[in-house]
Design brief:
Pfam families: Response_reg. The protein is of the alpha/beta class. The protein has one domain: Rossmann fold, CATH 3.40.50.2300. The protein is 34% helix and 25% strand. The longest helix is centred in the first third of the chain and has 12 residues. It is globular, with a radius of gyration of 13 Å.
Length: 120
């Protein structure tokens, strides 16, 4: 079994999104871990040490843009690329948190893969 060298952290309150993204990226030799809430998030991010974070904007009671801003402002996590996901129609410049990219749900698998590959 080949070791998975690239790691994606999916932060989304929908377990089905974790499952779909895991299935997609297993084909590309990525390890994928899912988190469904923002509890102890900074510690979880540091422990997993992902190459990239896929972050839902609407994460239950928490706004993913605030999480993005917090991660980008921290010297420990600022280097990790973040792609925000949302069912809302938004433009990158409207997000007010400096993500590395944005993908609207539902997304095309090829678009997701291309954006992840470009940032890692």
């Amino acid at each position: 079994m080949q070791k998975r060298s690239k790691k994606i952290l999916v932060i989304d309150d929908e377990e089905s999104i974790h499952d779909i993204i895991s299935l997609i990226f297993e084909e590309y030799n990525y390890a994928v871990q899912g988190i469904s809430n923002s509890i102890d998030l900074q510690e979880k991010v540091l422990a997993y040490n992902p190459n990239l974070i896929l972050l839902d904007i609407y994460l239950g009671e928490t706004d993913g843009r605030l999480i993005c801003k917090s991660l980008k402002e921290s010297s420990q996590t600022a280097h990790i690329p973040i792609i925000l996901l949302s069912a809302a129609t938004l433009k990158l410049e409207q997000l007010d948190c400096e993500p590395d990219d944005f993908i609207e749900k539902p997304f095309e698998i090829s678009e997701l893969v291309n954006k992840v590959e470009a940032l890692i």
